[in-house]
Each structure stands twice: as structure tokens, then as C-alpha cells.
Amino acid sequence: MELYVFDNYDEISRYAAKMVSDFINENSNCVLGLATGSTPLGMYKKLIEYNRDRIVNFSEVKTFNLDEYRGLSGEHPQSYRYFMNKNFFDHVNIDKNNTFIPNGTCEDVAKECRDYEEKINELGGIDLQILGVGSNGHIGFNEPSSELYAYTHLADLTEDTIKANSRFFKNIEEVPSKAITMGVGQIMKSKRIILLASGVNKAKVIGRIFNGKISTENPSSILQLHPSVAVIADKKAASLI
Ligand code: GLP
């Protein structure tokens, strides 16, 4: 695994945005896997600037997001569709028809998951996947467990995750307890992965990605088996490597 450590959040955001825009400049019609959460926000901001300054062009890019809360429509301010539109898609020259996020309010979840997988495969799989990581080691919403799913599925969120994500909601009762998420198999099939981490509360999990054993109880540890992962972290997140 490649490791890039920087002094602060701003520097990791800039470096990640540069990596992504270089990648797009070499593969103008690539398929990106995208993440939500607070960690990639700075990277999205920089990519918006690069797009405005014509350093990168999203007109042929396709994107698949990792996950969406079950029960939230795209208009809900805490849905990941809303997050992506507001923080990224609305500000760059991407065709929204080429941006895919599971539909949290679909009637038939199993079908939604199957269709999502098929669409990813139809477009040739994910070329570059952006990941954040939960402080409990989750990637997407693949939570620590005795078993993991390879493919897109409906996941139960753990208490830890519900608590961590309640900061975005009015109160903890409003946080959905389930989400549709890409599975670890689809994530691991990405040709290249960039994992972003910032802050001391990610230090333990980042340390374990580099030094720990591979375990389904720490889904991010599976990234050790991937041939092309770049971890971009600030000093605090990298402090236990
Ligand atoms: C969320 C998302 C993950 C994200 C993680 C970390 O629950 N489903 O994709 O990586 O939490 O979030 P943050 O970047 O805010 O720490």
C-alpha cells in the first residue's frame, strides 16, 4: 500500500484532488466510485476549483456512490444524493444522468441492489474508488461483523455508526438504522483505491490497516489484499502506523 502523509487536512484534500484529476486527465471517460462523510469534502471543494479553472473535465466521467440511507429520498438534506449534489455535482460539469447512487426509497431493495451491481458491471467496473473509513473500520456501510457481503446489499448500521452519524441529524432517533451499500467485493474489484483519513479518531484504524491482521471485524483491513491502494492521511490519522 502506498502511504502519503501530510501536515493537515487541507494538504490531504489538495493531494487527493490532484490524484483524482490526474487520473481523469488520463482516462477522460472513467468510472469513479465516490464516498460521502466529512473527510472527502475538502477534496470535492478542490475538484470544483480545478473544474472551474479547466484543470479537469467531468463531462464524460461516470460515478457510483458507495451507499445511501434506507428510507431517505434524494431531497432529504441528510441523504447522500443530496450531499453529493450540494457538495459536488451541482458545481462541476458532470452529466447528472451519469451519477449513480442507490435509491433509498425504492420499493424492492433486492432489485435495487441487483440493478446497481449490474449497472456498475455494465460500465466496466470502478476505475478509481475514493474511500473514507469509519472509526470502527467500516468502508461504505460494510460494518464490522463475523461475515461480510461481496455485493450491494441492505446493511444494518451499528450503534457506533448511528451515534457517529447523528451529528448530521437533529437527534439520534432520526438516523436511519439501515443503508444500501456496495459490498466489499465490488470495492475490491476497483482498479485503484484512494483512502482518505484525517484526525486522531482515525489513527487506530489506519494503524491497523498497515500493521494489523485481516479480519471481517475490521472491514478496512481487507484493503491490504488490494494491489493498488493509496492511503492519504494527515499526521494525526497516521500517528499509529
Ligand atoms: C459514513 C460513510 C462512509 C464514510 C464514513 C466516515 O458512515 N458511510 O462512507 O467513510 O462514515 O465518515 P467521516 O469521513 O465523516 O469520518
From TrEMBL:
Domain (Glucosamine/galactosamine-6-phosphate isomerase): residue spans on this chain: 11-224
SUPFAM superfamilies: NagB/RpiA/CoA transferase-like (SSF100950)
Superkingdom classification of source: Bacteria
Pfam families: Glucosamine_iso
InterPro entries found in the cross-reference section: Glc/Gal-6P_isomerase, Glucosamine6P_isomerase, Glucosamine6P_isomerase_CS, NagB/RpiA_transferase-like
Pathway(s) where this gene product acts: Amino-sugar metabolism; N-acetylneuraminate degradation; D-fructose 6-phosphate from N-acetylneuraminate: step 5/5
Catalytic activity, EC: 3.5.99.6
Identification of the protein by name: Glucosamine-6-phosphate deaminase
Organism whose genome encodes this protein: Clostridium pasteurianum DSM 525 = ATCC 6013
Lineage of source species: Bacteria, Bacillati, Bacillota, Clostridia, Eubacteriales
Name of the encoding gene: nagB
